[in-house]
Amino acid sequence: MPSSLKDMRFLIHEVFDFAGHYQALSRAQPGEFGEPPDAALIDAVLDEGVRFSEQELAPINRSGDEQGCRIEAGEVFTPTGFKEAYATYIELGWAGLIGDPAYGGQGLPESLSVFLEDLMCCANMAWTMYPGLSRGAINALNAHGSEAQKEAFLPKLLTGAWTGTMCLTEPHAGSDVGLAKTRAEVGADGRYAITGTKIFISAGEHDMAANIVHLVLARTPDAPAGTRGISMFVVPKFDLDGSRNKVSCGSIENKMGIHGNSTCVLNFDQATGYLVGEENQGMRYMFTMMNAARLVVGLQGVCLAQAALHSSMDYATERLQMRSLKGPVAPDKPADPIIVHPDVRRMLFTQRAIAEGGRALIYYTAQTADRFLHGEAADRERAGSLLDFLTPIVKGMLTELGFESVNEAVQVYGGHGFIRETGIEQHVRDARITLIYEGTTQIQALDLLGRKILMTQGKGLLIFLEEIKRVTETLREPLPELAAVLAATADEWGQLTLELSASAQQDMDALGAAAVDYLFYSGYAALAYCWARVAETAWRAQQQHRQDASEDDPYLAGKLATARFYFSRLLPRKDFHKQAIEAGPDSLVQVSDDALTAL
Q1: Would you kindly state where each structural domain of the chain is located, as residue ranges?
Q2: How far apart, in whole angstroms, are the C-alpha atoms of residue 587 and residue 520?
Q3: Is 536's pLDDT higher than 90?
Q4: What is the CATH number of domain 285-454?
Q5: What is the residue-wise DSSP string for 510-526?
Q6: Catalytic residue list contains 14
Q7: How far, rounded to the nearest angstrom, does the alpha carbon of residue 484 sit from its chain's CA centroid?
């Protein structure tokens, strides 16, 4: 597993100054983190994280895919090496890195876990999902659970001795959890009996931990219809007295990718459950888990793009095929390496722009989440609005582009990418689910345009446009060509949003028809902001380097080249999406179902 550590350090220390960010959080909330993490502590986390990822996770990525999980008499067994790697993960103390110290966590800022997740997911996405699901359960219980529930479940979750899941989806309902039929009936002792079936439950049953804590959405008998009647319950695999609860794995899905993660059908048959918070507030509580999970899924898209990029780069520099159109580049060899061909370079630059730009957007969003949770009171509202706005972009855009990137890797490899031996095709299969789970691209698009634009009058967008304007001003002197394009994009983005909002108020089909194109437009604009920040940092570092050395640093030159590629080759894709938005809904909706389906 070639590490992305150099890129991570550049972003963490140079572009976003996370050590300074943590100092600012500490000043805003004195004592919340103890000593705020400095650059040395951050690097220690990165160094240990990359060792764990390279030594424990990467070696079992392909074997885990080939072996998959198996079920025997309702018990699920993970691939060889998964359980042992998880035991090492616990020994290293990673499970409680960001947890509340009152329940055994280390109390560090949430963004530190993003760096660790980045390293682990680049090495083995399927394995990383097991501890990743636990964090959603931890966050929900910490935010909404009773003190008794926190004391009962959080210490075990924060040591990693227990893991957690989210149990939302049912066979008939899909993403429309308001159609859920799982029942919850209260008993005389205040506990609930949970009955129903949940599907597509990642890490729903496995042999890596002693207990699994399921957070289940269910409906009480007198609950209102739809999402207003959803409640959340804690349903452990083994109850607090050690007895086996009445929740069982009916099957594991035979799926396209992420074979090393057990995606389960779970049956609840009068299982004991504990109400989280109040009845009929489950949807609100669910989003505590869901929003964090959506950022993690966006990171998965970036990580798979990163893993495929490293393989593509190595292959393109070694694979000999044809001659350069300008004449032999390697006359001593029978053919030139394919990296000399312009379109191979386009594919490599595309992969690099997606992986490195996407990572920058993830880290910027993680900083925003830190500010929302731990910043000064005056800043929290702004950070919350910005985080709400960025979340569907991160989840929707980075998974779509991540899938594009891994497919470009197959194309770089040619026929060798299509066979299993090289491992590239596994990235494609693993990446495909990221466009679907935790809300499809279409759901993210409707959330962005409907909830985060129309319902808030674009509050988060306006905050982000202010930030773009600030960066544009600092970019004008060193990189005026990028500054001009970024400024024009911000102006166009604001105007397009105003026009689309007006159209949607007249005809809601305009919202539905434009939502995905608006998501893509927003994603390309957000990545332009990130590449502008990366380019400015690289340019300033390059000027300093030229004072200290006689030659340019190829790494910094590569950053600037990729930024220019993004602005000239990928950002113009927004124009297509703008035209599609402006075309309106008529070509989609002014045709009968019969005409559409007549094949």
Answers
A1: 285-454, 459-588
A2: 20
A3: yes
A4: 1.20.140.10
A5: HHHHHHHHHHHHHHHHH
A6: no
A7: 30
